[in-house]
TrEMBL record:
This is Flagella basal body P-ring formation protein FlgA. It comes from the Bacteria. GO terms for cellular component: periplasmic space. Residues 117-179 form the SAF domain. Involved in the assembly process of the P-ring formation. It may associate with FlgF on the rod constituting a structure essential for the P-ring assembly or may act as a modulator protein for the P-ring assembly. Gene3D superfamilies: 2.30.30.760, Antifreeze-like/N-acetylneuraminic acid synthase C-terminal domain (3.90.1210.10).
Length: 239
């Protein structure tokens, strides 16, 4: 089904919640791999726990390299991290990291966060007015910040739809580029009320995409009615 715009919301954490998580993520910093690299890895792990992402999303968290000229001693006791400001993870986030062991130290570590969304893209060049088939489509992971328009995350939902314009490989397939039901197409009209469902044949009087209402003509009665497109070749009407 059509997902529409992907949400870019990031969860906000009240101070008490952030403090609790901060205490839970305090760990000893021991001597393996160099203190500077350990701090960088620790910061990435900390931020990753805050990222609001879907179960199918890919999350990329990359902390900046820490200047090795900084005198950072090993921190075998209490090491803490905190996202300053509203505690909200953004594309560019700064994390305050502090070692509470004497002599102690603190620094801000810049972290870059990317969320990649699974979207349906063209696998090959697709010409205008082409009936879409499985081999022409693929799932690609795209940076959510760069996504524009109504995109899809399910190839199956697009099978049988028709391209309204040329589609380029690797580019997300948008709802505005598709004709799910095209004028003159034979469609199945599904009339539903309660638990009763009646199916009959019809002809589309205009183009339409997912969830759009279009005019259709009942092939048996010749009557013109309005219906909502639920999938390729299927229009639903109320009784």
């Amino acid at each position: 089904m059509l997902n529409g715009f992907f949400s870019r919301h990031r969860g906000r954490f009240p101070f008490a919640a952030r403090l609790s998580l901060m205490l839970l993520t305090t760990i000893p910093l021991v001597a393996w791999g160099g203190v500077h690299e350990q701090v960088r890895q620790y910061t990435e792990d900390y931020v990753r726990d805050f990222v609001a992402a879907g179960p199918r999303d890919q999350v990329e968290v990359e902390a900046a390299s820490i200047d090795t000229r900084l005198q950072l001693t090993e921190c075998p006791g209490l090491l803490t991290a905190d996202i300053r400001g509203a505690g909200e993870v953004r594309r560019n986030t700064h994390v305050f990291v502090q070692c509470h062991e004497e002599p102690g130290w603190s620094l801000f570590v810049p972290v870059r966060v990317r969320i990649l969304k699974p979207v349906v893209t063209a696998a090959v060049p697709i010409a205008r007015n082409t009936l879409l088939q499985p081999g022409q489509l693929q799932i690609s992971y795209q940076d959510e910040v760069l996504l524009r328009g109504d995109v899809f995350d399910d190839i199956q939902a697009l099978l049988g739809t028709r391209s309204k314009r040329d589609l380029r490989p690797g580019r997300p397939v948008l709802a505005s580029q598709l004709c799910v039901v095209c004028k003159g197409d034979r469609v199945t009209i599904v009339a539903e009320t309660g638990g009763l469902s009646i199916r009959t044949d019809g002809i589309a009087e205009e183009d339409g995409s997912f969830n759009e209402s279009i005019r259709i003509r009942n092939s048996r009665s010749g009557r013109q009615i309005q219906g909502r497109i639920s999938e390729a070749g299927v229009v639903r009407v109320g009784l």
